[in-house]
Amino acid sequence: MAEHPLLLRRDPRPWIARLRRSTLVRFLLVGGFGELLYLGLYVLFLQLSGQRAATAIAIAGGITLVVNAVLHARVSFRVAFRFSLLLRYTAIQLLCLSISVALGALLQRLGIPALLIGVLSGLGWTVTSFVLTRRSFRRDALRPAPAAAGTPPPGFG
């Protein structure tokens, strides 16, 4: 995949170049953007739906899920986006949700303060999401791209 021209510019500070190359930094930036997008869309759809929170959550969450899947593929992990990545990304996020809910319930039973539970479950979600998404998207990057229509299979022609 071709690099963006602004990313090719040589920076005299080597730590800036390392940050640009860091998959984790790109993942966190895309995730932060996704959180801001979700909150903005939530507020918008909350107003448009007549204060129906569930409707606003569903619409904002659905849009953000797709945007995050595309951005993580293209920006975080620099692979071509495919529909199969969206399906895997969705499954990963559902797993992360389940783990976070279970962790939250456990921490609440242990008497941990609610705010700390939110921070710890969010951190657990982020780490789990990064590891599983990176593994899933890298696996997809190693697969050859599907042949274009009319292109003979390898070894023919």
List keywords for this structure.
157 residues, mainly alpha, 0% strand, single chain, globular
What secondary-structure arrangement, pairings included, does this model have?
Layout: H1 5-8, H2 14-21, H3 23-48, H4 53-76, H5 83-109, H6 114-142
What is this entry, summarized?
The protein has 157 residues and is mainly α. The protein has helices at residues 5-8, 14-21, 23-48, 53-76, 83-109, 114-142.
Please, could you describe this protein's structure?
The protein is an all-alpha fold and 157 residues long. It has one domain. It is 75% helix and 0% strand. The protein has helices at residues 5-8, 14-21, 23-48, 53-76, 83-109, 114-142. The two termini are 27 Å apart. The relative contact order is 0.10.
Secondary-structure element order, as H and E? HHHHHH
How would you sum up the global shape?
globular
The DSSP helix count reads 6
Helix content: over 70%
Q: If you compute it from the alpha carbons, what radius of gyration comes out, rounded to the nearest whole angstrom?
A: 19 Å
How far apart, in Å, are the first and last alpha carbons? Answer: 27 Å
Q: What is the mean pLDDT?
A: 83
Q: Strand count, sense and closure of the main sheet?
A: none
Q: Please tally the β strands and state the result.
A: 0
The low-confidence parts are: 152-157
Structural class: mainly alpha
Query: What's the number of structural domains?
Result: 1
Q: What proportion of the residues form beta strands (DSSP E)?
A: under 5%
